[in-house]
Write a structure and sequence with these properties.
alpha+beta, Pnp Oxidase, Chain A, seven-stranded antiparallel beta sheet, 3 helices
Length: about 170
């Protein structure tokens, strides 16, 4: 069962930081929205992540900045594996649910259709996804840098990708 953090709905921006120049710089970079999931039977966690990069090599790697207090960080560390899926515009509500900025009655995993893999649950209609193994977690600033080895990879269509810029979901 998904063990999510509590959520408060309010009309103000959930992450106001006009005096934080680093956060403002990061917001100007923008990025593709991905969904990272991990867990095993009965204990699942997921988090939307746009601060990530892919390193080519043998094996390739996915690096993501995660919330150090997230359930995902705990599950990824415990299981040592996860799924990284690239999201599309049609996934924007799911993205908000996993990001903790929209309500998800019964848990965020009720907002999509899932396929069980050896790496954890993956979003069934995400055409591009990677099954990953955790290599390391390192504290960086107010985040945790998760470095993961790509074990399996499916690359599908990339029409209408979901992007994040200036604190908002957008299309390119």
């Amino acid at each position: 069962m998904y063990q999510g953090r509590s959520l408060t709905i309010h009309s103000s921006h959930p992450f106001p930081a006009p005096e934080d120049p680093v956060r403002r710089l990061r917001g100007r970079l923008g990025g593709r929205v991905s969904l990272w999931t991990s867990g095993s039977a009965g204990s699942w966690a997921g988090l939307t992540v746009s601060s990530m990069m892919v390193a080519n090599g043998s094996p390739g790697a996915v690096l993501g900045l995660l919330d150090p207090d997230s359930d995902l960080r705990d599950e990824l560390e415990e299981t040592g594996s996860g799924v990284v899926s690239l999201l599309h515009w049609r996934h924007r509500d799911l993205s908000e649910a996993f990001g903790g900025t929209a309500p998800a009655p019964g848990g965020a995993f009720r907002t999509g259709t899932w396929v069980e893999t050896e790496f954890g649950r993956r979003l069934a209609d995400a055409p591009t996804w990677a099954g990953v193994r955790l290599v390391s977690m390192t504290e960086v600033g107010w985040s945790v840098l998760a470095t993961c080895e790509i074990v399996t990879l499916e690359v599908g269509d990339d029409e209408d990708p979901l992007m994040h810029r200036h604190g908002r979901l957008d299309r390119p």
